[in-house]
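seq/struct pair 1
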Amino acid sequence: MFSYILKRLLQMIPLLVGITFLSFVIIQMAPGDYLDQLRMNPQISESTIEKLKQTYGLDQPLIVQYFKWLFNALIFNLGFSFSYNMPVLELIKDRLPNTLFLSITSGILAWMIAIPLGIVAALKPNSFVDRLIQMFSFTFMSLPSFFLAFLLLFFAVKTGLLPTGGATSPNYDSMNFFQKVLDRLWHVSLPAIVLAVTSLAGLVRLVRSAMIEALQSEYVLFARAKGLKERDIILKHALKNALNPFITILGFEIASLLSGAALVEIIVNWPGMGMLMLDAVLSQDLYLVMGGLYIGSIMLIIGNLIADILLAKLDPRIRQREVEGVLK
């Protein structure tokens, strides 16, 4: 297992270099830069702009700029934000916990709802309940997350039943620990529901098909022949084996939640990485954009690594293939 983890960690290096290099080149190919906005200000002289160019290293060739940034990024020195006039890492530290909290909350909510619905649909295939659950899945699979976010935001504004904007209440600092937890959950409810619903729609169909296949397998028939309780057969045998393939898509779920969170954050005014990256792109803040992409890429790669490790832990065949690969 150690060799497997080490191998995957080494594979992260060229992947990160490739992602960041392509992103750096594409950003630099865009017309203009942050200093162009300063040139429009008649009170700022050209000599001041040239000094800023030298300070930020924007006067150097693109490839030199990239490798300087990369060497600093490896020790998490992500540079200085032009527009915020503060270190990029400090800005990301302030916003990243909100995005992670939103993604984790919506992910847990999606899986908690998807698994029971998938099991219920699989136990009575083609029944009225099954058709109702499938209709729910198809409806929300075809509904874009940003459109659902607009609908829920409109509902929240009209009814006042859900909070709109912000991660905490104005009196958050005066609350006790329990009240703070409830307040955070209350404020994350709107974007979390949007992400959870759009994510669980596809998960329900996958759980249903995997459970139907598992319930028709020989080991389930054998368990029933032995006279085991139906509840134990469903939860301990069928569900355990049916969920193994879902560990594989865990990494993709993390990727989709993070990417989907950015757009939803912007719509519902959630103070996460989405709003920060939008401001950075609009202001052409090079190092802030690159810092956000760098941290986001690391998170996605680690998410996929966790999924692979969990799958290898659950499936002995993968561990066996890894041992054989090391021996060869």
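seq/struct pair 2
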Amino acid sequence: MSERGEAPRSESGSDGAAARGAYLDAASTEPLHPVARTTFLAALDAGYADPRRLHHPGRTARLLLDNARAVVAECLEVRSDEVTFTGSGTEAVHRGLLGLAAADAGRGRRVVLAEVEHAAVRHAAQWWGEPTLVGVDRGARVDRDALAAALAEGPAAAVALQSANHEVGTLQPVDEVELPPGTQLFVDACASMGRVPLPRTWQALAGSAHKWGGPAGVGVLLVRRGARWTSPFPADDRSDHRASGFENVPAALAAAAALQAVVAERDDLGARQHAWIARIRAAAAAIGDVDVVGDPERRLPHLTTFSVLYVNGEQLVTELDRRGFGVASGSACTASTLEPSHVLAAMGALTHGNVRVSLTRSTTDAEVEAFCAVLPEVVAGLRDGS
């Protein structure tokens, strides 16, 4: 990492910024925000103690943790007592969804969720018992009629619906979905927290700090006051009954500082990134035999996915990396196995030759133009076998 908290960039040419590559995989993890680095280092000396203890170092750590919680609450427009820090976004997902289901265990072992949910949500639903998958349209939006039909089949312990898709960026119509009375909704906002305003109609919601430039190993779990939630795991004696284990106070404070910074700049940055992604989508579509997927407008500003016919996704990612551009391929949650994307399959889109491009806060116009110039060359070379 550089001194400014940015990912290193490959020098793949000699003609200045336009010839340089760029890290274009922010959807996997955003480079650490400079304010997160500064805050974390400062908090290491003050926030090391157990915030449950009554001695001075413990009280100091508790004040820092409470401050982090208050900052996150203000950024997300929720109450401070609705915010819990977890050990990861995945833990926040599991605790949020399973906590709702456990509280409503009398409604059965069924969790209703969209086919395009992240693996963390799918695995949690399978662990609980009986996942009911609901289809989506070509843009990855949940089929609301199919959702209503699934819920009409009988009670559900919980419904899970992401705020935005991790892989194609489409924003889900969370606030437009009507659920039967008493049915609780869990929202996976790991891909969107900090980048767009949260939906309003949920009982529990999860985010992940490293997705917005905070440190890895910090998740955010929101549980509405008045929601029915109970821990699905063994109890712990922390002051926050929704958490377990020793809180990483410096990391939580750094995550809060980064969130505050990105929320302050998201309108301007989001507008620039939205335009750049539109440029990349157009460049990809112009190549021919390329399926650019996801909603072109109602989407996360920094992310797009396309699939290139007659090209192997691993080879495409490798060749782009050789040119200095770090992108992702395969499912957003199982890329290490190079399995076809369950998201694209659910959408009825091409699953071969898939590339996900996601911009960081430090991406430049020159880098976007350089990528758009390199992409057709790389695709042509792979199709020709050269």
